[in-house]
Design brief:
The protein is α+β, with helices and mostly antiparallel strands and 530 residues long. Helices cover 51% and strands 22% of the residues. The chain has 15 helices and 17 strands. It has helices at 4-70, 73-84, 89-111, 145-153, 197-205, 218-224, 227-230, 285-288, 306-339, 342-368, 378-395, 409-416, 418-434, 459-474, 503-519, and strands at 115-120, 125-129, 157-161, 168-179, 184-195, 211-217, 242-247, 265-270, 273-282, 297-304, 399-406, 441-446, 449-455, 477-479, 485-487, 490-496, 525-527. Strands 2-1-5-4-3 form a five-stranded antiparallel β-sheet. It has a five-stranded antiparallel β-sheet with strand order 7-6-10-9-8. β14 and β15 form a beta hairpin. The longest helix has 67 residues, at 4-70. The protein is elongated, with a radius of gyration of 31 Å.
Length: 530
């Protein structure tokens, strides 16, 4: 048994060991949590960029359609005749309708458009709705402010407006016709092209790796819509102030918190699955004209982050288990040392010190290596990238990086489950390792995204490496079960350091090239032009 003095010493040493053990666990847990938060934040920012880019492309498509039709000689000349001679309106309306209706169906599919509307000036008196030709002559000055303004100053515009039946994303352009009497072009009125969030979410955003819900203030919608149409609307469950304009997936509506609780970002757990929920303020055309614009609703973006969250929980549990086991082992060794005498105690302390150093190395390894792929985690990868930038500056050698993202990874997860999703990530990581030299540095940047540092490598050489890597991944077959497998592809962005940008800015240039690859059909390599 331990003597009284040795017992006090034993307890004191045990307490110190416990403090050290707890400190290592806390540091490892903090590192894992920080990596998780950074990955989620990057996913959110990428999703927001995707959505804003898609929305801008929708507006550009509407603008192109409006300009295309407004430059049609028959359309613009007949519109001018109708604007100057009410007696000719019916005939001109029929001529334009007959001329455009043949191509209307093709235009709606190509531009994801649902309305084509001619308006007389001033104000917004309807002349012809190609999508509803039997309705005309009504005035909507209290709703179509974008039309009123275009008729007033004859400038192209785009914007979002609420409506009597549905809300719309609109583009307007002034129309000029040739006055045969004077031989000059004269202003006839405004042409409006429009679509809805419901249509563009179904056509444009549904294939993306996240879900979108458009929410608008219920009171505002009620003040604009016809009562008969308003009675058909839906609201966010548990919060009567949120009108659901459109969604890519009806099932995710129950995941969204009440409108007043939606912050810029929050994490929600539903049926055992973690989701990141973030918002983009939604402004209408009239609101953006105000000195202090006020949002009329929110575009809510939801993404499944269960893989990231599960990895974080697993890392935390493993860290605690290792810590407890290490403490128990050290305590047993310490007790044994005290019982066999001071000489052996000193030897035991030496061994214990070695054991603690090994534990330190283990925890250090845990803090820099991604547990799923065995690659560097994001934090350590960025440290190594900074070292290579400093080396490149000293030795005047080129330095390039590759950003790689697995295509349609959300679809794989949703279709085959997260176990197959993890197998995909592991298989891609293995191909990345097999494609690199001993001096190259690979890391898991977050989720299904990877980053590779290529020292002493020009951008052209890096592009060749990326292309070989892409071809290897394209040949991968991941077994789903004994009867089926899934093929995967990846998009890659390449960038060479300009000896000026910091590590984060450098990565962002490759990230921009990666998104260019995504926008160009995926499964390809793009080089940064920044």
């Amino acid at each position: 048994m331990l003597e009284k003095t040795n017992k006090k010493l034993f307890l004191f040493i045990s307490f110190l060991i416990l403090l050290i053990d707890i400190s290592f666990i806390a540091v490892n847990q903090y590192s894992s949590k920080n990596t998780l938060e950074q990955s989620i934040e990057k996913d959110i920012n990428n999703a927001k960029k995707d959505f804003n880019l898609g929305l801008s492309l929708i507006y550009k498509g509407l603008e192109q359609l409006a300009l295309l039709i407004s430059n049609d000689d028959l359309v613009r000349n007949q519109f001018l005749i109708a604007s100057k001679s009410p007696k000719q309106s019916a005939k001109s309306r029929e001529i334009i309708r007959h001329h455009l209706e043949k191509s209307w169906e093709k235009l709606t599919k190509k531009f994801a458009v649902r309305q084509l509307h001619f308006h007389f000036a001033p104000g917004s008196t309807s002349f012809l709705r190609i999508h509803k030709p039997d309705k005309f002559g009504d005035n909507m000055d209290d709703l179509r402010h974008i039309i009123v303004d275009t008729n007033a100053d004859q400038k192209n515009r785009t914007g979002f407006e609420l409506g009597r039946v549905y809300s719309g994303l609109r583009a307007t352009t002034p129309v000029y016709g040739m006055n045969e009497a004077t031989g000059k072009n004269e202003f006839a009125g405004t042409l409006e092209t429009g679509t809805s969030f419901k249509l563009i979410l179904e056509e444009t955003f549904k294939p993306l790796e996240y879900d979108v819900v458009v929410l608008i203030d219920k009171t505002l919608v009620k003040s604009k819509m016809w009562p008969s149409e308003f009675s058909k609307t839906k609201y966010l469950s548990g919060d009567l102030q949120c009108y659901i304009e459109a969604t890519t997936n009806e099932k995710v509506i129950d995941i969204i918190p009440p409108c007043k609780e939606i912050n810029n970002h929050t994490t929600v757990k539903k049926n055992g699955i973690y989701y990141s929920v973030s918002k983009i303020p939604l402004f209408d055309y009239q609101g953006l004209k105000a000195a202090s614009p006020k949002a009329i609703g929110n575009i809510v973006i939801l993404k499944n982050i269960n893989t990231l969250q599960r990895q974080y929980i697993t890392d935390t549990i493993i860290s605690i288990i290792y810590g407890v086991l290490a403490f128990i082992v050290v305590e047993i060794v310490l007790l044994f040392g005290f019982n066999i005498g001071s000489k052996q105690l000193r030897e035991t302390i030496r061994l214990k010190t070695i054991s603690i150093e090994k534990l330190k190395e283990h925890y250090k390894h845990q803090s820099i290596i991604d547990g799923l792929t065995g690659l560097n985690n994001r934090s350590h990868f960025m440290d190594r990238l900074l070292e290579e930038q400093q080396r490149s500056t000293r030795e005047h050698t080129p330095l390039s990086i590759i950003m790689l993202d697995i295509d349609y990874f959300k679809t794989v997860n949703d279709t085959y489950g997260h176990i197959v999703g993890d197998d995909v990530i592991i298989a891609v990581a293995r191909k990345i390792k097999n494609s690199l030299r001993s001096i190259d540095i690979a890391g898991r940047y977050g989720g299904e995204e990877f980053c590779i540092t290529l020292p002493n490598t020009s951008v052209d050489e890096a592009k060749d490496i990326a292309e070989r890597m892409r071809e290897k991944i394209e040949k991968l077959e991941i077994d789903v079960d004994e009867h089926s497998s899934v093929n995967i592809t990846a998009s890659l962005g390449v960038s060479q350091w300009n000896n000026k940008d910091n590590a984060v800015a450098f990565v962002n240039t490759a990230d921009a090239a990666l998104y260019e690859a995504k926008e160009n059909g995926r499964n390809n390599v793009r080089v940064s032009t920044l």
